[in-house]
Write a structure and sequence with these properties.
Chain lengths: 233, 233
DNA sequence: TCCCAAATTTAGGCTGGCGTAATTCTGGGA
DNA sequence: TCCCAGAATTACGCCAGCCTAAATTTGGGA
């Protein structure tokens, strides 16, 4: 009966679940209950309960004991949340001086409170950006998102040039660290070595004297790159 | 057990109640249950229930059947919400092109989601404003608020000059209307007449040809003014 | 002083969302 | 094919907040 000026019309919790499911979805397989539980830091039975409500609302398709998939309307709502999150992050960094490692939590709360109008005004003020500060593509107002086909740094062949295109916004520590290395979205570098058995990747970073830097495997897995055309010897 | 990055540490609902009570409080008398119920658009028994919780948390002092008063900590939290609300309103109008009649609802939601840091960054970007777009004073970070001693337009003596200083942000219709008259905070005018029995107040507004304008009693009650020194014949 | 209307509180219920404990299903290994 | 570990679900309970209906209190007028 209550109006709820939320503009997705769904509860905060529902919005969180939809976004989490969207982010966990891979084209092939449904998202498992336990994965959602971990992502949202709730107990698995809580997820079962919410999944039931979501599927009754037609937001997800539930295959018992198998997992869930977003329905069309679920995906639309999820992409709306993703757009909000990324525009807010971009706005905070560009207009209010936030560092890229500190915007995630703020955006996580604001995405539930902003109206469509505010988001569009922020987007306008930013010149309708296509990527957020971590390189993630911003879905369009109509819910289209660019599918990027990026390579983990750990998979870039030794000897090639690559450009950092995207990093998860989740881990501030990690973001601070890679920023301290001079790495940010758009920086190109050469991959000059990789040790086997999940050993570090070594890259050469541009600079007055180019700098070689070892990147641990876990980190190298989190850095998404474009392999650049011209190879370097 | 959950951390709650809310920074007041209270629930959305609690924040709403505290702010409402603050705004209904008058130095002398406690705030009645029914007044809170009306302000928040909930049923009186819901207020009784919440008041019980608030008083158990030490945020209000409850005098059964008489009403409630904010405690020190309750007042501090309420003023924090007021500061947030007013800074958000100011930010939206000054930096994102909102009109003064459309910021209230947006601020009403954002005030619960923003962090202290975001508020301070907004305030900084605005040059630490002292008043919001409707002329209401913005509490300082430490919780001090300027007490203004303003006169309703309906109480300004006929013949004097006055300046509009403050209007409630609650009614967009009213705000649009007075803006359409060319009235905004800071505009000075002369009170040239007032009809008895809650009749209209007539004012003379500055302009290429000064304009006379009748203001209904209800509206005249909502416009808070300074009486200016120099009288005019 | 008594009584009634209005305000308030209590009683009892509901929903969303979370938790734990117990149960059920699934799929891979022996 | 059987069995079991792990995943998922069901069963049940809790709390915040809201509601309506039924007491209860209060204060002002006759």
């Amino acid at each position: 009966m209550s109006a709820e000026a939320k503009s997705t019309g769904y509860s905060r919790s529902t919005e969180d679940y939809l976004k989490a499911i969207y982010e966990l979805e891979t084209p092939g397989s449904p998202v498992q209950t336990s994965a959602i539980a971990e992502a949202l830091d709730v107990a698995p039975p809580s997820v079962s309960g919410m999944v039931k409500r979501l599927s009754e609302s037609g937001l997800v398709e539930h295959m018992p004991y198998r997992g869930v998939r977003l329905s069309e309307s679920g995906r639309r709502a999820a992409l709306k949340m993703v757009r909000r999150h990324r525009i807010v992050e971009t706005y905070l960094t560009q207009k209010l001086g936030y560092d890229w490692d500190s915007v995630h939590d703020e955006a996580e709360r604001l995405e539930h409170a902003v109206s469509d109008e505010l988001i569009e005004r922020m987007a306008m003020a930013l010149g309708n950006p296509r990527y957020d500060p971590h390189g993630a593509p911003i879905p369009s107002r109509s819910g289209l998102i660019e599918e990027q086909d990026l390579l983990a740094l750990s998979d870039v062949p030794v000897g090639s040039m690559a450009e950092l295109r995207m990093v998860s916004d989740r881990d501030p520590e990690l973001l601070r660290y890679i920023a301290s290395l001079g790495l940010k979205v758009g920086v190109a570098f050469e991959v000059i070595g990789r040790q086997p058995f999940k050993g570090p990747v070594t890259i050469r970073l541009p600079g007055k004297p180019p700098r070689e830097q070892a990147i641990g495997h876990e980190l190298a897995d989190a850095l998404r790159c474009w392999e650049l055309e011209g190879e370097v010897g």
